[in-house]
Design goal:
Layout (H helix, E strand, L loop, with lengths): L4 H12 L5 H11 L1 E3 L4 E3 L2 H5 L5 E2 L5 H13 L5 E4 L3 H9 L4 E4 L4 E4 L10 E6 L5 H13 L3 E6 L6 H5 L2 H6 L2 E6 L5 H8 L4 E5 L11 H8 L6 E3 L5 H12 L7
Parallel strand pairs: 3-4, 7-8, 7-9, 9-10, 10-11
Antiparallel strand pairs: 1-2, 4-6, 5-6
Helix pairs in contact: 4-5, 6-11
GO molecular function: hydrolase activity
Pfam families: AIRC (PF00731)
GO biological process, one term: 'de novo' IMP biosynthetic process
């Protein structure tokens, strides 16, 4: 279990009184913040340190490992757990091990403990270029909701029919942070950033024909955006974009 504030104060007083070496205090706090479940070292202090608790990356882990991690996190007092990059078969196996997991097949996200009420300052707008990009866009949108954000979605508004995007100009200008998800040539992020007054987080996807190189073309286009205020995450990383968007949306400021 993590060391609570009262216990840390008591330990610090022992250090001040010469009853404990400073190195002992450091070791005590460090060891208490890590839960060793054999196949994983869980950071139980992450929520207090960063504002966001441990998230489980499901790809490459067995259902038994995921279930064990979730049990340990819940047992340590974490209210809810997000599991990314699941598939339906593995999600069913996790549930069969007694974990009350809600699974969404589009985003490939599993949630234990439900989604909290939004407590961010404004709206996270997730803009999706095409229907083929929706799995990544939904990973971003649902992750942002899990992290306590009000989320609005704009779907299939890519630059191939830019009038579809321009019809949502008010939504773009009201957003506090925008996640722009696109494959192919990745032009959507630049267009959105040219219309918005808030930060834009670009997510290249692996959608496209051969010369898209599995998302590398969109990635390079977004990195070379001529519009200011664009940051870029890795290919298909909807989770990472949502995490960054949530940090921005929870900064003190005017509500939108």
């Amino acid at each position: 279990m993590p060391v609570d504030e009262q216990e840390v104060r008591a330990l610090a007083q022992r250090v001040a009184a010469g009853e404990m070496r400073p190195s002992e205090l450091v070791d005590r706090v460090r060891s208490a913040s890590v839960c060793d479940v054999g196949f994983a070292q869980l950071d139980m202090d992450r929520a207090a340190r960063t504002g966001v608790p441990e998230v489980v990356y499901g790809a490459g882990k067995t259902a038994e490992q995921i279930a064990g991690i979730v049990r340990a996190l819940l047992g340590a007092g974490q209210e809810r757990v997000l599991v990314t990059r699941l598939d339906a078969a593995k999600a069913a196996q996790v549930r069969a091990r007694g974990i009350d997991l809600a699974f969404d097949e589009v985003s490939r996200l599993g949630v234990v403990g439900g989604v909290p009420e939004p407590d961010g300052c404004g709206t996270v707008l997730v803009v999706c270029a095409g229907t083929s990009d929706m799995p990544v866009a939904e990973e971003a949108a649902q992750t942002a909701e899990f992290l306590g954000n009000r989320v609005q979605r704009l779907t299939d508004v890519g630059v191939a029919g830019i009038h579809r995007l321009l019809g949502h100009l008010d939504d773009i200008q009201r957003a506090r942070v925008i996640v722009a998800v696109a494959g192919m040539e990745g032009a959507l992020a630049s267009v959105v950033a040219g219309l918005a007054s808030c930060p834009v987080i670009a997510v290249p996807t692996s959608v496209g024909y051969g010369a898209s190189f599995g998302g590398v073309t969109a990635l390079l286009a977004m990195l070379n955006s001529c519009a200011s205020g664009v940051s870029v995450v890795n290919i298909d990383n909807g989770f990472g974009a949502a995490f960054q968007a949530s940090l921005i949306n929870h900064l003190p400021g005017k509500e939108a």
